[in-house]
Structures are given as C-alpha cells and as structure tokens.
Design a protein that fits this description.
The complex is a heterotrimer of chains A (294), B (369) and C (273). Chain A is mostly helical. Chain A is built from 14 helices and two strands. Chain A has one domain (71-292): MetI-like (MetI-like fold). Chain A is 73% helix and 3% strand. Chain B has two domains: 2-242, P-loop containing nucleotide triphosphate hydrolases (Rossmann fold); 247-367, OB fold (Dihydrolipoamide Acetyltransferase, E2P), CATH 2.40.50.140. Chain B contains ten helices and 20 strands. Chain C has two domains: 1-26; 70-272, Orthogonal Bundle (MetI-like fold). Helices cover 75% and strands 0% of the residues of chain C. Classes of the chains: A mainly alpha (294), B alpha+beta (369), C mainly alpha (273). Chains in contact: A-C, B-C. Chains A and C meet through helix 1, helix 3, helix 4, helix 5 and helix 10 of A and helix 1, helix 3, helix 4, helix 5 and helix 6 of C.
Chain lengths: 294, 369, 273
C-alpha cells in the first residue's frame, strides 16, 4: 500500500524524533533502572554488581549490615501518596464549582475568565511558590496582617506544616485540574440538563445523575494530571514543608545531592515511575487516551 | 478497437476493493464493478450509503488504489498514478475550500501549481467566477460565503483546469431543499455548456433522476442497473432498483397460467393479473406505481385489473393527493391519481371499501433469473 | 435557571477562586515597591530601589541588600535561560512538528507506539526524568553544562510541540490536502501551500509553549545544570533556599511581567487557530 516514495518521506520525518527520544529519553530511563540494581560504592559512585537491597531497604527484605530495612522510607512514600491524593481532592473541590461557574458565563466573559485562570500557569513555578513563602512565613503577609488587625497576639506557625505544603501544591497545580474539568463541562450538552429538570429532577439530582457522570472523564484526567506532579514533588515540600514534611521527592534529591547514594535514589525514583505507570495504564484502560491529550 | 476505446472518457474493469472493518473482518466496498463512461454525459452513481459509490469515485480520482481491476481515464491506465497526475478534478462533499486563501486564490490554485502565468490565471479565474455567478467575490475568504456560494467556488475551482472528467461527491447534500433544486438545474446546464463529463455521486434518487443522462445504481459493491433515468423508473432491472427509485408497491411470486393472461400468485395467496411477457413458472416481481392506480370505472374493460381494498387515509401532497389503501391480505398500496381520478377518490371516506384499477400492461414485471 | 441562589453561590465561589489565584501574585508585585528595609511585609514607602539594586545601579540601601554583588550571577543566569530556551525551542519545534506530521499524516504499524512514546515525557514526573538524565550524563561522562540542559529540555519540549501541532493536524480537514492533490499539486507543493499555512498557528503556539516551559523549568535543570551553568529559576530557587530577600520580589515581578506578555501572545495565537 505505502509507496516507496512515501515510506522514504515517512522515514525522513520520523528519524530525528526517534533517534533523539530513543537516546536521550529511553536511554536515561534504562540507565536509571540499571543503576537501581547496582551496589552503591563506599564514597558515592557505584559498584557494577547486581544488588537488590536498594529495593529491600524500601520494601522490607534488607537486613545486611549496612543496608537495613527502615520503615521510614515506606512512611515517607505513603505520606507522599496521601498528600498527593489530598491535593487531588482539594483541587477538585475548588475547581469543579469554579468550572461550573465559568461555563455558565456569557461567551465573552468565559474567554476572559479562562484566560485569567490559565495565565498564572505560564508564570514561573518558583515565583508562584515564592508568593506563598512571603505570605506564610512567620513574619509574612498573613501574620503581619492578622497581627496588625489584632486578630492574633503572636505569629501562628503555618509554614513548615502539611497545610502549607498542601496550599502550595494546590496553588501551582490548579490549572491542571481546572482545564480538563472545564473542557468536559463545556462539552456537556445543555439540553440534557434541561431535560433532567424538565423531568422533575431537583438541581441536586440533576447534578448527581446527569452532570457528574457525564463529566467523569474530565475529573479523571484532572486527577491524573494533578496526582503525578504532586507525588514526586520536592520543590514545594522543600520551600514550604521544611524538614518536617519530607516527601519522596526530597528523599530522592537527598540521595543524589547530599547522601550520594545513587543506586538507592534510582530505586526510589523507579518506584515513583512505577506508581505513575500503573496509574496511567489504569487510566487508559478506563477512560481512553483522548482525555489525557486535552 | 482503439477508436472504440477512445469513445469512453473513463473505464472501470473488474474493480475490487476491500477495507478492513474496525471490528476485524473485511468490508467489500467494490465487488467486481465494470463500467464505461461516455464523453460529455452527466452520469450519476446512485445508491444507499455504504454501497461503494464514493469508493468508486475515489478510485477514479486516485485517493484509493484498487485491490484488483483497473481504471482507465481517456484510454490510459492510471494504476499507481497519484491524484495530482490524473486529468480529473473533484468537487468534495464538504467543498474542501482552503480557508487561508481568498475565493480567487482557491479558484486559481490549480492553475498556479501548474505554473500558469499570473495574467492568464487572472483572466481564467475571472471567467470562472463569471460562469458560476460570483463576479465581485474574488477577495472574500471562504468563511465569509454562504453554503451555496462556497459550493459555487468549489465548482469553479474544479472546472478551471478543464478536466476530462469532473467528479462530484454528494456536493449538494449540505444545502437546503430549495437551493439544492436550483443548483441541480444549474449543474445540469453547466455540464451542458462545458461539454465535459460529470460523474456525480448521490444517495438521493430524485436528484439522480433530475440531472442525469445515465444513472448507475450501486448496491453492496455491485452494479444493479445502468441506463437513462426513465429506464430505472419504468423498467427497473432488479427488485432493489424498483424499491430504491420511485414509490410503488411490489408483489413477488410465481407466474401461473390461466386461459387468457398470466397471473402472478404471491406467497400469501394473492393473485394478480399481469401483462404479456413472463412465462409460466417464472419467479417475478410486479411493481405498481401510485400514478398507475385509479378508482375502477363502473364498467371496467378487459385491459383493466381490479384490486379490492379499503381506504385507510388520504394525504395531501401539494399537486396531488395520495390515497393509502389496504388490500385484503393486509398489503398497503398507495394511489396518486391525476386530477380527474382524484374526484372519484374524494367521495370515498377512510374506512370504506374502494375498488382500485390499473391497466394490465402498465406495471413493470421483473423476472428473476 | 430556576435557582438564582445557586447561581449566586457559584459566582461567589468563582470570584473567591480568582482571588485565590491572583492575591498572592498581587501581594508580591505590590511589596516589590516597598522600601521597608527590615520587614518587607510592613509597608513603608514606595521605592524602585530593589529594581535598581538587581540591575546593579547604586541605591540608598546598601548593607541589608546582600545581592547587589550577585548581579553578575543573575544576569548570567538570565542569559543562560534565554540561550537554552531559544535553542531548545528551535530544535524541539522542528523535531516535534516533523514527528507530528509523520504520525498524523501517514499510516504505519508503529503509530500507536509513537503516540505513546511522545506522551511519555509529559506524564513522566519531573524528578524521575531529572535524575534519569543526571545518571545518564554522568555514566557516559557527558559534561554537565548548557549542552546537557539543552538536551534535557528537548526530551520533553518535543512532546509539548508534538501535542500542540498534532491537535492542529487532527483538527485540520484532511480533504483540503486531497483537494490540493486533486488540483494537480505535488506533495511538497501541497505541504507548502495548504498544510503548512493551516498548522502554522499550532507550530507558533507550540513554540511559545516550549519557550515558556524551558524558561520555567526548575526540577530537571536543577539536577543536570553544571556548576557554572545556572538558569534563572535554579538561581532564584537557590536564593530562596538561603533566605527571602526583598530583591526576589523585584525579580519575581519582572518575571511575572515577562511571563504574562509571552502567555498573552501564546493564547492570542491559539485563539486565532
């Protein structure tokens, strides 16, 4: 079917991308996976021996002299998953009504508001987090204001808590939840909502029986898009969580930049990747590819 | 032989094309089709959706390669020839106007890519605009035109290269009824003026009958009948054509002999007299068109066949009225009598018995082989 | 609707939502003009000194501003960022577009594989990709520096361009290309005269997106930047880790303004498409 010329054209178009991603995307992932099964060297670096205790330290079978299972890693891992899930719930609860509101505006206002909501997405992540550092730190905007108004007598500790981490993560990831939700609500055929209330359903029933099920793909897409960057995040816990709210990302960073145990760091990283892959596969099975793309 | 071949602008021989169905398995779009298209004719490919008519068109324009069989355009074999080297042009169903080019940019596109100098191009674009009645619209963008105007631009763009054969893929389906009817007449006269052959694809039998010199009825990848529109209507070759083109009631059965005339006996035992032609033992289908039916006169002569029925309802249709009746065996049959016959009908009320009559020789009989 | 109170409730929520999104940004912008030398969150006077100070101009405030001497570092970080963003955008736009053309304009057996491959870098958590690249570069003795940053950025920027351009390609009526061929245009002419003008807004939008993402990337750059090849986000992150200084307000405000301009341009191009 494909002519000779066409297949030559196809090859010319495909080769640059294939080579680049093959070498510099698949390659690094493969090397990382290999590293996660190597023995850490005494002074950083690696010994080229097969070694499974990197995983054993996390999952519980390591009992060698140096490499012992420590439940703290599992704890951090589960804390990360818990915080990521909480973040999904928070962004969903904030964004869903907002998306409903936007979809009910006139076309002109809708364009403006969607633009306004998308805009901060293009602002540097550090800058957006810096805003919250300014607000939340002990001598920050929140405390200054509350003290100034006489609502509190001494500064409240909010930075370096899970709350601060959650606020920061929700703030930087809002657009990832809002946009898929808005897309699916926007697509919703309004006559279905009218049909439902025409058939006697209360707004609550209409929401529960018509709107919610029909926007489920948008919810799922938003959840995945928020969950993945939340799980491995280390910038937010680093700036807003401090040492008290370590997440798996911080652990990985430490292994690479201070502990210099690269194989162990690689193993942790492979774990993050596995969680992500499982989630994506599950998602693709249930909802289909098209929703992620949007 | 050679001279004869040159008479045809396009020939298709034993064309077979199969597609893989998404669920697996193959769909046969073209199942061994052969046909010849003569010069300067308006030919219509007619059939229900999925009958293979668009695939056939795309095989001629070069967007589909046949699995087997061959296509000749102007006597030359075009197997493996890409669309841009074929001397045919297409009017697409959705018009496919280039949104970023102006009307004249669209129309002049074919000339431009062929390297026609600007002056010559402008002149011919002007002529084409004139011809389709869009003079003065040259600088507009397609999005600023109505559906009918877009249609004309697509038409002008396709004829400017003076193709040997113009292919039209359901080009009128997006227009509303009134516009469609006037475009039908315009297309017909345009074809007449240009003298090039139009191959027109449609699923609308009325459109096919209105415009065509030749109608090719396709069904399930095979040709049912080729001929002038009148033949399809009055002498349908197959039961499919009889059902697809025009209204009417079909009676299928076996011809049995009586003393005078052959009689068609249907499975459910209805006996209907038919005209001369079919032989005893033939399996046959009789088709009675609504306009062939009238109320039986007081003293029917020998050439009339009488059917006893009950009037169910009368439906106003503008020029005529349609009377839906039911025969004794439950078959529904419609009559659309002329003005004089209409008066006789108007005295009958729904629910009352009515005697229908038609000339024995009028209805066509399809003999199945 | 029949329930005005419901609508009102939604409106209130919507406005609070916008407030939540913009209040922190506005606070930073406002306080970047605050002259209070000790507590930057207590308003004193309007001043442009912080802006002057980051550009190395002489100002009234001296001792408390620890970053006056690091102006050179800041400028070099900015230069690095712009250099990396410009070159990676160019490369990623070309490769992303050709790959999208291959995948969405041809039929071949590996098509689903390619679609998967190109979505992977976008869904891969930053930290995983960052350390994978680090391990890769170090293992193959590739020097960490601007080159490694550029390579790292391209791995995911190609995907972003691919997605934007292929959305445009998928939305484009493919009968247009058939019409062009039907009118006698050879494949290259069809590409130049029909396909390219149609997908150009997608290509421009994809390029702008790539540029912004590259300028903004922190996590991946953080791992693969060499000692002397810091980019702006990594530099600011480093500053933030050492303590909050008023100049950061000013730098943040300038970056905000820059992002807003680029984003507005990008959204304008997307609207047009």
């Amino acid at each position: 079917m494909i002519g000779k010329r066409e297949s030559r054209r196809l090859a010319a178009l495909l080769i640059p991308g294939t080579l680049f991603l093959g070498i510099f995307f698949m390659g690094p992932l493969a090397v990382m996976i290999v590293f996660s099964f190597l023995e850490p060297g005494l002074y950083g670096g690696v010994e080229w021996n097969f070694y499974h205790l990197n995983y054993g330290r996390i999952l519980g079978w390591a009992d060698a002299e140096w490499e012992k299972f420590d439940p703290v890693y599992a704890e951090i891992f589960f804390r990360s998953v818990r915080l990521a899930l909480t973040n999904v719930a928070i962004t969903l609860l904030i964004c869903y009504p907002a998306a409903l509101w936007v979809s009910g505006l006139t076309t002109r206002w809708r364009t403006i508001v969607v633009f306004l909501i998308t805009l901060p997405f293009f602002v540097s992540l550090v800058v957006r987090l810096f805003c919250w550092v300014l607000i939340l730190r002990p001598s920050g905007f929140l405390n200054s204001t509350l003290l100034g108004l006489g609502l509190i007598s001494e500064p409240i500790d909010i930075i370096y808590t899970e709350t601060a981490v959650l606020i920061g993560m929700a703030y930087i990831l809002l657009p990832f939840m809002f946009l898929p939700l808005y897309a699916s609500i926007e697509k919703l055929d309004h006559s279905l909502v009218e049909a439902s209330s025409d058939l006697g359903a209360s707004p609550y029933q209409t929401f529960l029986r018509v709107i919610l099920p029909m926007t489920l793909p948008g919810i799922a897409a938003g959840a995945v898009l928020v969950f993945i960057p939340s799980l491995g995040n280390f910038i937010v816990p680093d700036l807003l969580g401090g040492a008290k709210v370590l997440m798996i990302g911080n652990l990985v960073e430490q292994q690479f930049l201070s502990a210099r145990n690269w194989p162990f760091g690689s193993a942790l990283s492979v774990m993050i990747m596995l969680v992500m892959l499982l989630l994506i596969i599950f998602f693709l099975r249930r909802i289909g590819r098209s929703e992620i793309v949007k | 032989m050679i001279e004869e071949a040159l008479d045809y602008i396009a020939e298709v021989k034993d064309a077979v094309k199969r597609f893989l169905a998404p669920e697996g398995g193959a769909i046969t779009a073209l199942d061994g089709i052969s046909l010849e298209i003569q010069q300067s004719q308006f030919v219509t490919l007619l059939g229900p959706s999925g009958c293979g008519k668009t695939t056939l068109l795309r095989a001629i324009s070069g967007f589909e390669e046949l699995d087997s069989g061959e296509v000749r355009i102007g006597g030359e074999l075009v197997t493996g020839v890409p669309p841009y080297r074929r001397p045919v042009n297409t009017v697409f169903q959705n018009y496919a106007l280039f949104p970023h080019l102006s009307v004249s940019g669209n129309i002049g596109y074919g000339l431009e890519v062929a390297g026609v100098p600007r002056k010559e191009r402008d002149r011919r674009v002007g002529e084409a605009l004139e011809r389709v009645g869009l003079a003065g619209f040259d600088l507009r963008k397609p999005a600023q035109l109505s559906g009918g105007q877009q249609q004309r631009v697509a038409l002008a763009r396709a004829i400017i290269n003076q193709p040997k054969l113009l292919l039209l893929d359901e080009p009128l389906s997006a227009l509303d009824r009134n516009l469609r009817q006037s475009m039908q007449l315009e297309l017909k006269s345009l074809q007449h003026d240009l003298g090039i052959c139009f191959l027109f694809v449609t699923h609308d039998q009325e459109e096919a009958l209105t415009m065509s010199d030749q109608v090719i009825v396709l069904n399930q990848g095979q040709i049912e009948q080729i001929g002038p529109p009148e033949a399809h209507y009055h002498q349908p070759a197959t039961r499919f054509v009889a059902e697809f083109i025009g209204d009417g009631t079909l009676f299928s059965g076996e011809i049995q002999n009586t003393i005078e005339n052959p009689i068609l006996v249907t499975k459910d035992g209805l006996s209907i007299a038919v005209g001369v032609g079919p032989k005893v033992g033939d399996k046959a289908t009789l088709i009675i068109r609504p306009e062939q039916l009238n109320i039986a006169p007081e003293n029917p002569d020998d050439s009339m066949v009488i059917l006893d029925a009950v009037l169910e309802q009368s439906v106003f249709q503008g020029a005529t009225r349609r009377y839906v009746c039911q025969l004794a065996n439950g078959t529904s049959i419609s009559a659309a009598p002329t003005e004089s016959g209409d008066q006789a009908f108007s005295r009958v009320k729904p629910g009352e018995p009515v005697r229908l009559a038609y000339r024995r020789s009028a209805p066509h009989v399809i003999i199945e082989t | 609707m029949k329930h005005p109170w419901l609508k009102r409730l939604l409106s209130v929520h919507g406005l609070l939502f916008l407030f939540f999104v913009y209040a922190p940004i506005i606070i930073v912008v406002v306080y970047s003009f605050n002259s209070h030398p000790v507590n930057m969150m207590v308003w004193k006077d309007f001043t442009l000194d912080w802006y002057f100070s980051i550009f190395g101009f002489p100002t009234k405030l001296t001792e408390q501003t620890l970053y006056v001497e690091s102006t050179d570092q800041l400028v070099s970080a900015l230069k690095n960022s712009l250099l990396v963003a410009a070159s990676t955008t160019t490369f990623a736009t070309i490769v992303g577009t050709t790959t999208a053309l291959a995948v969405y304009r041809h039929h071949f057996r590996l098509k689903p594989f390619y679609q998967g491959l190109l979505y992977m870098p976008m869904v891969m958590p930053d930290i995983v990709l960052g350390i994978a690249l680090l391990v890769f570069f170090v293992n193959f003795s590739i020097k960490l520096g601007l080159m490694s940053i550029m390579i790292g950025h391209c791995t995911f920027l190609i995907s972003y361009v691919f997605v934007v351009v292929s959305a445009r390609l998928a939305g484009m009526d493919d009968t247009l290309e058939q019409a062009s061929a039907d009118l006698g245009a050879k494949p290259w002419t069809t590409f130049r005269r029909v396909t390219l003008p149609q997908i150009l807004p997608g290509i421009v939008g994809g390029a702008l997106l790539a540029f912004i993402i590259s300028m903004d990337d922190l996590v991946i750059t953080y791992f693969i930047a060499g000692v002397d090849s810091t980019t702006l986000p990594v530099f600011i992150y480093g500053m933030l880790r050492r303590g909050v200084k008023p100049e950061i307000n000013a730098i943040a405000t300038l970056m905000l303004a820059f992002s807003f301009v680029i984003a507005s341009l990008g959204l304008y191009f997307r609207k047009r498409s």
